[in-house]
Structure formats: structure tokens, C-alpha cells
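Backbone-to-sequence.
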């Protein structure tokens, strides 16, 4: 057994994990419990790697994960960062993330599901397979459904090829909880369950400003107030998707700004007028009706 001392800071620096975790902090607003959990997992994986380097035997850490939460809360972004971390630490060989849904895995007729699922798994090998809305794989009310076949193949690969593939199952929390209750074999293979909270209005406003800044737009102070009101109202309506809904709202606001400017053609335009979103660009949304 190797007994030479290890410089933890040197080992940490070698992996570039710090850079990835810092990017996670910079790129994602809020989500403190998620970031904390990713740091904990990263620490466990780094220490496990150092133990193995010293010849200390231990059970392999479970790498399969479950991400639960509403749409637009950063699950795919965190999945990408997790793939980077696993790659830097040598737990996966390629480090890519393949995002799929039920339609990519489940066939329409007998004999169709197995080759479809195996083809997806082949593409994902060496990286992370991210299955969005994973609960749709299981439809117990339909005896002619082939989702159970896809789950069975997944279970085999998650158990027997843990060194070659990491699976992240993602979706709304309540349906995912029921999905795991109905599929205890899946649940037992997932070591890390991470719940993604909804964003607050203040966080969504911050995200909106980042999105606009990337496209060289800005909100006037009155437009910022209007957008906060929009977010509060939109959150109460069906199909709210956090950052995704905010992005859609900004796209429509930019369209209204363009129409407003076009309708007033004839005047000389300033850069400020082309950059600024005004309150009316927000307040014309149907959520205020």
C-alpha cells in the first residue's frame, strides 16, 4: 500500500473541479441547496479517488442520480456540469451528456424497444445519459406499453456497466416519487437524489437581466417593476416553467419593442431607444388582462 502523504490542494487543482464549481456558481442564479449538494458529491468522489490511488479499498460510490423539480430550474445545466466533474475525476471516459425522453427509448410495437434503447445506451457510453420526464417510461395502466422493457434494459446497464455510464433521471418531484415507488429496482440504484427548488421573483428578475445583457438589451426602471409584476402573475398561472417562461416573456417583449419602434418610424433612432425595453413592452402581455 502506498503510504506517501497527499497534498489535497494539489490534487484538487489538478482536476479543475474548482473551475467547474465556480462556473456553476457564476452561471446559475440561486439554487443554493443544489450547488451545496454538487459540492458534497464532488468532495466524496475526489476523496474516493485519492483512497483508491493509495490502495485503500472501498465500495464504489454510487454515481447514478435523480434530479427533481419544475421545468426551467437548471436541471440540464447542472447535469452538464456534473458530466464535466465526473470526467475530470476519471469516473467516465468521454464526459458528454446525452439528453433523451421516452420517445427516444420506447418503441411502438413488439421488438422495437430493445434496439432503440440499446442504440441510445451505445451513444451515451462513456458519458452521462440524462432521461428527462423519466416517469413517462412507466405506464402501468397500459398493458400494451413497452416502457417496462426499456426500464429493464436500463436497470441491467446501470448495475453491470456502472464504470462506463452514469444515468440521471429527471422530472417533476411528485410523479418521480411515484415512479420510484413503482420501480424499486431503479430507486435502489440511485445514490444521489437532488431536488431543484423553484426560483423566487427576485432570482427570476436577476436571470432576466442576465439574458437581456447577453443580447445587449436592458430594462428601464419602470420596465423592471412591470417585469416583476409579470413574474408574480405568471407564477400563478398553469404551465409556469421558471427561467424558461421568463425567456419566452422577454422574447415577446423584444418583439413588442420592435413593433413599437417600427410604428413610430420616421423619427431618428438613438442607441438608447434600440436597447431599452419600456414598461409597455411588458404590460401588453395577456397575463395583465
Amino acid at each position: 500500500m502506498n503510504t506517501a502523504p497527499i497534498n489535497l490542494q494539489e490534487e484538487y487543482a489538478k482536476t479543475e473541479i474548482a473551475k467547474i464549481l465556480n462556473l456553476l456558481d457564476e452561471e446559475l442564479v440561486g439554487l443554493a441547496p443544489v450547488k451545496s449538494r454538487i459540492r458534497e458529491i464532488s468532495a466524496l468522489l475526489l476523496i474516493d479517488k485519492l483512497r483508491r490511488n493509495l490502495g485503500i479499498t472501498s465500495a464504489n460510490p454510487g454515481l447514478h442520480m435523480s434530479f427533481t423539480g419544475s421545468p426551467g430550474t437548471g436541471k440540464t445545466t447542472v447535469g452538464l456540469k456534473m458530466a464535466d466533474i465526473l470526467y475530470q475525476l476519471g469516473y467516465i471516459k468521454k464526459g458528454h451528456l446525452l439528453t433523451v425522453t421516452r420517445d427516444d427509448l420506447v418503441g411502438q410495437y413488439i421488438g422495437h424497444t430493445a434496439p432503440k434503447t440499446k442504440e441510445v445506451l451505445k451513444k451515451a457510453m462513456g458519458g452521462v445519459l440524462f432521461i428527462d420526464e423519466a416517469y413517462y417510461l412507466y405506464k402501468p395502466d397500459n398493458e400494451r406499453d413497452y416502457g417496462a422493457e426499456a426500464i429493464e434494459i436500463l436497470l441491467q446497464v446501470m448495475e453491470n456497466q456502472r464504470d462506463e455510464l452514469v444515468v440521471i433521471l429527471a422530472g417533476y418531484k411528485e410523479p418521480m416519487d411515484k415512479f420510484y415507488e413503482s420501480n424499486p429496482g431503479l430507486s435502489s440504484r440511485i445514490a444521489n437524489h437532488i431536488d431543484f427548488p423553484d426560483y423566487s421573483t427576485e432570482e427570476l428578475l436577476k436571470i432576466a437581466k442576465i439574458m437581456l445583457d447577453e443580447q445587449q438589451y436592458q430594462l428601464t426602471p419602470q420596465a423592471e417593476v412591470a417585469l416583476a409584476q409579470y413574474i408574480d402573475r405568471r407564477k400563478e398561472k398553469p404551465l409556469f416553467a421558471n427561467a424558461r417562461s421568463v425567456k419566452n416573456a422577454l422574447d415577446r417583449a423584444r418583439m413588442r419593442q420592435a413593433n413599437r419602434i417600427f410604428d413610430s418610424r420616421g423619427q431618428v433612432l438613438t442607441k438608447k431607444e434600440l436597447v431599452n425595453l419600456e414598461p409597455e413592452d411588458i404590460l401588453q402581455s395577456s397575463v395583465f388582462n
